[in-house]
Design a protein that fits this description.
2 domains; 5-stranded mixed beta sheet; Aspartate Aminotransferase, domain 1; about 15% strand; alpha/beta; 7-stranded mixed beta sheet; Aspartate Aminotransferase, domain 2
Length: about 425
């Protein structure tokens, strides 16, 4: 099936009532047929619902539908995008290990990987997304994951998937892509050779800023990269918390299964059924919305590029953009609704952000309503001066999340704010 059909139908088999809309299974627990049924579920001899911290029928539809859109084998929902990033790391790394992360990522990812993860004994080594060859120099026998964004937020750079995947394959290291900005409609990292794709479902997935959530999707046949791989011994050795279960020997998607059985079980950052239902509603219109977001963003980028007070516009849909070639290579149908531009200085950028009427001053992206943000004083405020430079976030940078309002109204709003 094609994307628009998958977005509406994938993962849902109508219940006995024949409901067209996916029901909200607002429950914490499920009744077992008998004690044997309960024991079989807990021993993984039979698959089914046990407790909504681990699985839920509404969330199951969301996970299956998202996996279908990404072209993946399976997915697991989380309570937030940050939980998805943390679980992706915690599922492969332990004290003494290291992960490799692009310098140009969302500010929250930088603080998680540069500070919080350090307290778990996991080291983060950073590479420049513009120079993926740096990754090779950072790898050692304790390297467990390469983490980057398909479109970086807010510098709006496009990753060179081929170069990164080639390095990861040579060294037997898993790659994980934050595909939030691009969405599976515009970019499919798993089809480009990556192992994992994750999202903040709070963004384009809901489309209206209605709920906080995240999701991790694993590629098909990921077991081939993990089974027998000494980097991931815990997938190949008995898990004593499950009576000696060996994940790599199961005929099931092993990465997301371990997130579910270990991390959701013990740490509990699972999505609520109601939020999962909201994501399902958003997915139904995601292909349509991403075309509009991308079309309007390109028109606005061209307007800003011609404005005398704008020093630089970052949007891979512009032929003048340094990421244009990679954008054409890896993206299809548009380049999302996120763009950024630079003006003279921090004060000018803040004045513009304070002057718009349609663009709301909000620290979010992917909403149907247009948003303006000054990253250096908000989402990336916690970064040092050097970290801001490394992340591509100068003081004069303004980030726009272009919504689905009338494009000309948005352009006029920016024209008035620029003065």
């Amino acid at each position: 099936m094609h994307e628009q059909t998958l977005a509406i139908h994938a993962g849902y088999e109508k219940d006995r009532e024949g409901t067209m809309a996916v029901p909200i299974y607002q429950t914490t627990a499920y009744e077992f047929r008998d004690t044997k049924h309960a024991a079989d579920l807990f021993e993984l001899k039979e698959l089914g619902n046990i407790y909504s911290r681990l699985m839920n029928p509404t969330t199951d539809v969301f996970e299956k539908r998202f996996a279908a859109l990404e072209g993946g084998e399976a997915a697991v929902g989380t309570a937030s995008g940050m939980a998805a990033i943390f679980y992706a790391i915690a599922n492969v790394a332990e004290a003494g290990d290291n992960i490799l992360v692009a310098k140009q990522v969302y500010g929250g990812t930088t603080t998680l990987t540069g500070h919080t993860i350090k307290r778990f004994g996991i080291e983060t080594r950073y590479f420049d997304i513009h120079n993926p060859s740096e990754i090779e120099e950072l790898i050692d026998e304790r390297s467990k994951l390469i983490l980057f964004e398909s479109i970086t937020n807010p510098s709006i750079d496009v990753a060179d998937f081929d170069a990164i995947v080639a390095i990861a394959t040579r060294h037997g290291i898993l790659t994980c892509v934050d595909n939030t900005v691009a969405t599976p409609i515009l970019c499919k990292p798993l089809a480009l050779g990556c192992d994992l794709s994750l999202h903040s479902a709070s963004k384009y997935t809901t489309g209206q800023g209605l709920a906080i959530g995240g999701i991790i999707v694993e590629r098909k046949n990921l077991v081939d990269a993990i089974k027998g791989n000494v980097r991931y011994a815990h997938f190949n050795e008995p898990d004593e918390s499950y009576h000696g279960l060996i994940y790599s020997e199961l005929a099931l998607p092993l990465f997301t299964l371990r997130v579910r059985l270990s991390l959701l079980r013990d740490l509990g950052a699972s999505p609520s059924p109601f939020n999962s239902w909201l994501y399902i509603q958003g997915l139904e219109t995601l292909p349509l919305r991403m075309r509009q977001h991308s079309s309007s963003a390109l028109a606005i980028a061209k307007f800003l590029e011609s404005h005398p007070k704008v020093k630089k516009v970052n949007y891979p849909g512009l032929e003048s953009d340094s990421n244009y070639a990679l954008g054409q290579k890896y993206f299809h149908g548009g380049h999302s609704g996120l763009l950024s531009f630079e003006v003279a200085d921090k004060q000018t950028a803040q004045r513009i952000a304070d002057s718009t009427e349609i663009f709301a001053l909000v620290v979010n992206i992917g909403d149907s309503k247009s948003i303006i943000t000054h990253p250096a004083s908000t989402t990336h405020q916690q970064l040092s001066a050097q970290e801001l430079i490394d992340a591509g976030v100068p003081g004069g940078l303004v980030r726009l999340s272009v919504g689905i309002e009338d494009t000309q109204d948005l352009i006029e709003d920016l024209r008035n704010a620029l003065g």
